Amino acid sequence: MADKLKDIYNLLVNEMEKMLTEGKTVVAGDEVVKVSADAATLNVIRQFLKDNNVGGGPVETNPANRLIDKLPFPKDAAKEAHH
Q1: Cα dist. 48→25, 33, 35 in Å?
Q2: Total domains, the chain
Q3: Residues 6+ apart with CB under 8 A from 32
Q4: Per-residue tens of pLDDT for the chain, all 83 residues
Q5: Domain ranges, residue 7
Q6: Using an 8 Å Cβ cutoff, are 23 and 36 in contact?
């Protein structure tokens, strides 16, 4: 069971990382376009990081730490929001 939870956690981190680096695919009229992550998505990622005690400090073994480098604002802001 622990391995499955770890796999789900890693999939979630990978999807969030992809949203931060590649954006989201949306349909705008007749076009399919890529857009940067919106405020709601960034808020979900911010809360995920906070819930998992991930700050802007040194990278530990938690894969969610990779998200800190992808956030579209300074690392210090992530640290301050975390504490």
Answers
A1: 21, 26, 21
A2: 1
A3: 25, 26
A4: 889 999 999 999 999 999 999 998 889 899 999 999 889 999 999 999 889 888 756 556 777 777 777 888 776 665 555 54
A5: 2-82
A6: yes
